[in-house]
Fold:
Amino acid sequence: MNVKLDFDDVLIVPQFSDITSRSQVTLETTLEGRWGTRITGVPIIAANMDGVGTFSMHHSLKKFGVFTAITKHHTLKDWVIQDDVNHAFITIGMNDEELKQAVDVIQHWKLRDTTFVPKIVIDVANGYMNSFYDFIKKVRDTVPDAYIMAGTVVTPEAVERIILSGADLARVGIGTGAVCTTRRVAGVGYPQFSALQECVPAAASVGGGVQSDGGCVFPGDFSKALAAGAKMVMAGSIFAGHEESEQEVRDGKVIFYGMSSHAAQEKHNQHKKYRASEGRVVQLPYKGLVEHTISDILGGIRSTCAYVDALNISELSEKAKFIQVNNVLNRSLEPYTVK
Structure:
């Protein structure tokens, strides 16, 4: 059995570079969809989770060109009262009612903004159900001009099937999230770096791409995902706990939970006796405005690009070389607090 790798198991090797300033690096890119639609922006997206996929988050992140997957629990009215949604993805599950609301949102914004491009996330925890692929086709047939990403899966065969069923990007990542316990509860998952290495070529072989979902703890992890060939990177916990999370702050702490946790199931009336919790509840320190966090992430990616002589993200995936390591960080001072 071959050992599979996570972001903590690899580093990017520096190379001789003609880049003298990180300001020379361009992070905005145009993603050409497998089914004819293109979107432009910085290929990072805040996850469709409570406390992350909010409209407040969208309005802050779009200033940096970054996308947000709005949670599926927002109503049509919530979408209608916004002043702009060109960097927001609509989230739906395998649910005809949610698809209908997505269509209503799209019709409203097409009438209101002639440049509006429909963007949809089909969010399913287990992307290996045969009915999931039929639903992707249904969404593509219903909204043929949408940019669609769907998942989650972790194997090349599933990635190919997702894209051929009608998606532009396949979401790759099971059990990667900080508040996800699927690997402990179900024993199912795949280390994220190896999943990307194996799934990116499969997606490209059928004209699509991969969206890396989860596992980013540090800014450098975003760089590793993009360098591994992901067209877009989704993250949750790193964006949680901010002013834009729209959650109550108690004693300087913000409650954050996985969307398969009992807390989420009870909040959204999805608790069933046959379901186990596959998420946990944590208290995060209040982080203030998200602009500081996203600036660190984008600055880290620019730094990575400068180290490998990449003027943009496309060149990053072409030029980056990885090595496997036993240790990524010097942790000698971690027990101490610096004031």
